[in-house]
Design goal:
This protein has 90 residues and is of the alpha+beta class. It has 1 helix and 3 strands.
Amino acid sequence: MSGKPTPPSSASPPRAAANPSAWANSSASAPSPADQALKIFREGKTDLLPRFISKKGKPFAAYLKLEEGKVTFEFAPREMKAPAKKKAAV
């Protein structure tokens, strides 16, 4: 060995291990990620899954749907808002 430091590799650093306690806080009645993975392959769609985060940082819920070999989001129908009140003519 020449004693020279080796240059850093171009490979990405190893990922941190997943937190095994992350699922410990979920309720016992909530389906596990493994159940949802099986469901998407068997039925083509998961149950409504909460805790997605949008690019703007807002949380949302969606179904995962398998279409033509790709996984896509399917959103739950939105509730209708009440019509806006009209301003009184002055």
